Amino acid sequence: xxxxxxxxxxxxxxxxxxxxxxxxxxxxxxxxxxxxxxxxxxxxxxxxxxxxxxxxxxxxxxxxxxxxxxxxxxxxxxxxxxxxxxxxxxxxxxxxxxxxxxxxxxxxxxxxxxxxxxxxxxxxxxxxxxxxxxxxxxxxxxxxxxxxxxxxxxxxxxxxxxxxxxxxxxxxxxxxxxxxxxxxxxxxxxxxxxxxxxxxxxxxxxxxxxxxxxxxxxxxxxxxxxxxxxxxxxxxxxxxxxxxxxxxxxxxxxxxxxxxxxxxxxxxxxxxxxxxxxxxxxxxxxx
Length: 287
Prior knowledge:
Elements: E1 18-20, H1 24-34, E2 38-43, E3 50-55, H2 56-61, H3 68-71, E4 73-74, H4 87-97, E5 101-106, E6 110-116, H5 117-123, E7 146-147, H6 152-162, E8 167-171, E9 174-179, H7 181-187, E10 189-192, H8 193-198, E11 213-216, E12 219-222, E13 239-240, H9 245-255, E14 259-263, E15 269-274, H10 275-286
Parallel strand pairs: 1-2, 7-8, 13-14
Antiparallel strand pairs: 2-3, 3-4, 5-6, 8-9, 10-12, 11-12, 14-15
Helix pairs in contact: 5-9, 5-10
């Protein structure tokens, strides 16, 4: 059962915000530094007045924009919640709107906190001992995967079009690793077109087309062409298809992860279990 708690009891007040006026380079730097996917955007010199949310997806959807005010999703298009509302309200809102982070506001859109889907999984669902639904009925089995030798620039395009938050990586022995946007960003480089044409260190065999770079106006985000085995996460945490979502959510909390490959008794890859899979099953459970 869900404890009788409010959003106030769950929200984080250690906010990493961006300001407008601001630019895309500030966002890219923040993503790399804090390893976060979404940031609240506030009005400069205001009392934390929230005007929007921005992250990796906005960069990909609006590659020609350079200003945060044009990149961000306006707060009128993003769900918000009050700190006095219930955890049930929060869970249903997050699942309905499919937003992994929801800002907590008061007054004239002053942001006072932020709640993520991980907060719900780690702090609420993982502690519900009655939540025993099986993984086999609640995971994503229609997923994209990568071969370990796939060039990272190609892998980035596959991830972008798959709609997944991560891609399992396989080799001839089976599951070898997993790769997420943050893995790409650790090795990505932002350069001017002029720098690329004059940089003596650039391999003459590289082709700077849509399969190797993300074009961003007069700058490009270069994804290296090295194989994904060199940049993927090899420290794998898997769940078995015969386990339950309660134990999976506890593992998500202890390992601080938001997805895990699902395997059978022989460690064959069957799919991917994500925070969204767990949240959706939990809503059915409490209903």
